[in-house]
Amino acid sequence: MWNQLTFVTSANAVEELENLLSENDCLSITLMDDGDEPILEPALGTHPLWSQVRLLALFEAVDLNSTESIKYFQQRLLNLQNSIQNLAAPCELVRQEELADEAWERRWIQYAKPMQFDQLWVVPSHCINQVQDEIDPQSIILQLDPGLAFGTGTHPTTSLCLSWLARTHLKGKRILDFGCGSGILGIAAQLLGAADVVFLDIDPQALIATQDNATINSIDLKPQQLCLPEDILPIGTFDIVIANILLNPLLELRDRFCELLAPHGTLVVSGLLEHQDQELRDHYTVSTKNNISLHLKNNFHNLKQHQQGDWLLISMEKQP
To answer: What does pTM read for this prediction?
Structure first.
């Protein structure tokens, strides 16, 4: 069991509150938006906060059989309530609760359902035995356990990418899953007939999840197929690069994608919102610096768009 305290405060008091909680033996701190103020793409190296912040502080549970433990917690709580009155901005303790021990990273399981993308099925590994008989034997089944990495197939951008892969001829293709997360896209590509897939992510945990998911699907990945950005990628270019990330990295990575793609190679990008469409198109179809055209070989053409809700996928071909 654990004790969790929930505070509501403003951004300029968060650091002071975090220090105060640490001084009172807080084990972990979680920051959440207390309003409706999404931060989709912070600049690199920055860590902006919402104007109103909900802070969750986790403490060891009180031993109800120990008078000393109960007194200690009561005194700590009193100290905190007195101290937050002196913070730089108003702060309120809004909730105190007990939490049972739980593998939080496994909570996604209760919401995970099998999903179909043409002939491809994505099935959570915990329910494969329950649904396997209901799926057409000619279908391709991808078992998935994302662990701590992003990518279950439920987000519109992942769904868009899986749908694109499922309806594309991949046999014999060499593919780079750029920002692989759980590995769902690259593993789907391999199951759909790709000759070679390389997985790249900035997070080592993502590469662990990718390796685990490949193993679940009887795919034997070689060490050179799992890469961090600083690693040297395997020699050669790719027929397809698929990147389900966000607009700002996509803008920064255009020339890098060109280097990675073979002539007439296909770039598939997602993680875009509808209102970001034109900015990406302008950036990828015209190479300019001070209004002077340059590096036209790094341009893309034949752009095609697919949409699900507010989210977009755009595929394009590298100029020869």
So the answer is: 0.71
